[in-house]
């Protein structure tokens, strides 16, 4: 006869139930902590739609933590640290500009940083005259070093591989809006600009430059003068035609914007006779032909205005006396003197002496 197994006592049942409840409670606590550590929102009120974390090239994990603490972007940097270390991010730091969005969890942030999913920088530059201005703007928008940028802009040897000199290298930089990774360095910036320059100079544009007897650099140098002569896009081909006529006739360009550039005072609104005697290779009243480099970064529109210049007989032009931004054009010097007198009278009436 088989012996019957003893039934579990009430006491044993209570113990088993207690253990199970304890395990469930521990599991719930662990699960809650896991969830809050990994998935709960960990951003502070300082994080808005346009909040960015910048991680410099060569930065280590401690630098990232220090930056997060300093910026006060996270409710708990310690929680982020725990997730980051568990996921191995402390060994895989990637530089860049990272968009921290409101409501991000630690896991969201770690995945973004580990994956190097940075946000591109939209970099726009225009209305730049001097190398130091370009260098400063690059340094403000990208990780690229502004001092190195300014240094290479004056280094003849650096530009040989691009077919330029330190004097005319600024023609490489075509004003527009471009996308870069924030951690782009100086050489990468120049290389990208060189690709954009090459892309702009299509076979058609090259053929047009050859037809009018100018190199690509010379087209840009003339375009810079045209740009500073007029903000009116529809008038630029006519102005370019004046300068082409002067070049072809062997006349000096006598462009006021080149004198202003030589003076280095860009507040000047009225060029005086004394100004035209300043000894500078950029003074086209003193030296024949084009200056050695551009007096600004010419727009693509101005470059195309030179390549497609309007053919006419004008060799003179002067700003209109109505200050509309347009110009009066003349074929003869006597005609030009009459136009100039009208404009000078208007300047005097407005009290513009400089």
List the SSEs and their pairings.
Layout: H1 10-38, E1 52-55, H2 61-71, H3 77-87, E2 96-99, H4 106-114, E3 121-125, H5 131-141, H6 146-152, H7 156-159, E4 176-180, H8 186-200, H9 203-211, H10 216-229, H11 236-249, H12 256-263, H13 300-307, E5 316-319, E6 327-330, H14 333-349
Antiparallel strand pairs: 1-2, 3-4, 5-6
Structure notes:
It contains 14 helices and 6 strands. It is mainly alpha-helical and 354 residues long. It has 3 domains: 63 residues, Dna Ligase, domain 1 (2-Layer Sandwich); 80 residues, no CATH class; 147 residues, no CATH class. The strands form 3 sheets. Strands 1-2 form a two-stranded antiparallel sheet. The chain has a two-stranded antiparallel sheet with strand order 3-4. A hairpin with a 7-residue loop joins β5 and β6. α3 packs across α4, α10 packs across α11 and α10 crosses α13.
Which tags fit this structure?
3 domains; two-stranded antiparallel ribbon; mainly alpha; 354 residues; Dna Ligase, domain 1
The geometry reads as elongated
- Overall mean confidence score, pLDDT: 91
Instruction: Output the structural class.
Output: mainly alpha
End-to-end separation: 125 Å
Strand residue percentage: 5-15%
Strand order, sheet with most strands = 1-2
Tell how many strands the DSSP assignment holds.
Answer: 6
Order of helices and strands: HEHHEHEHHHEHHHHHHEEH
Main beta-sheet annotation: 2 strands, antiparallel
Q: Cα-atom Rg, whole angstroms?
A: 33 Å
The structural domain count equals 3
Total helical segments: 14
Estimate percent helicity.
Answer: 40-55%
Q: pLDDT under 50 segments (min length 5)?
A: none
């Amino acid at each position: 006869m088989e012996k019957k197994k003893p039934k579990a006592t009430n006491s044993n049942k209570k113990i088993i139930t207690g253990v199970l409840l304890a395990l469930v409670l521990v599991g719930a606590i662990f699960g809650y902590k896991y969830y809050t550590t990994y998935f709960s929102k960990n951003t502070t009120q300082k994080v808005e739609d346009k909040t960015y974390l910048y991680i410099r090239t060569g930065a280590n994990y401690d630098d990232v933590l220090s930056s997060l603490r300093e910026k006060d972007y996270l409710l708990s940097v310690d929680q982020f640290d725990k997730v980051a270390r568990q996921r191995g991010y402390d060994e895989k730091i990637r530089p860049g500009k990272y968009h921290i969005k409101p409501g991000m969890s630690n896991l969201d942030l770690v995945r973004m940083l580990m994956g190097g999913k940075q946000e591109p920088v939209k970099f726009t530059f225009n209305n730049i005259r001097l190398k130091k201005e370009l260098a400063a703007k690059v340094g403000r928008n990208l990780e690229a070093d502004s001092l190195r940028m300014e240094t290479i802009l004056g280094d003849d040897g650096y530009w040989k591989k691009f077919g330029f000199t330190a004097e005319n290298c600024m023609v490489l930089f075509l004003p527009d809006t471009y996308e870069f990774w924030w951690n782009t360095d100086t050489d990468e910036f120049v290389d990208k600009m060189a690709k954009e320059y090459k892309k702009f100079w299509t076979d058609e544009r090259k053929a047009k430059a050859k037809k009018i007897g100018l190199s690509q650099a010379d087209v840009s140098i003339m375009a810079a003068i045209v740009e500073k002569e007029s903000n009116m896009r529809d008038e630029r081909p006519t102005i370019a035609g004046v300068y082409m006529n002067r070049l072809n006739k062997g006349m000096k360009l006598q462009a006021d914007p080149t004198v202003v550039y030589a003076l280095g005072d860009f507040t000047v609104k009225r060029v005086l006779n004394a100004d035209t005697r300043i000894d500078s290779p950029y003074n086209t009243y003193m030296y024949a032909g084009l200056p050695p480099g551009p007096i600004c970064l010419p727009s693509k529109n101005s470059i195309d205005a030179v390549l497609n210049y309007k053919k006419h007989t004008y060799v003179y032009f002067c700003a209109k006396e109505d200050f509309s931004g347009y110009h009066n054009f003349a074929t003869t010097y006597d005609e030009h003197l009459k136009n100039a007198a009208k404009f000078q009278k208007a300047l005097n009436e407005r009290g513009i002496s400089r």
